[in-house]
Amino acid sequence: MIKKLHKGKARRSSTSMSPRHTVHPEHNPFYGLFDIDGTVLEYKADSELRDYENVALDPSNSVNEINEAYFAKEVQPHVPDAWIDASKKDDRDQEIGVVGYEIPFNRHFYQYQPPRDLAEIDADLDLVSKEIMELLREVHS
Question: Cα dist. 53→11, 37, 98 in Å?
Answer without folding.
Answer: 31, 31, 11
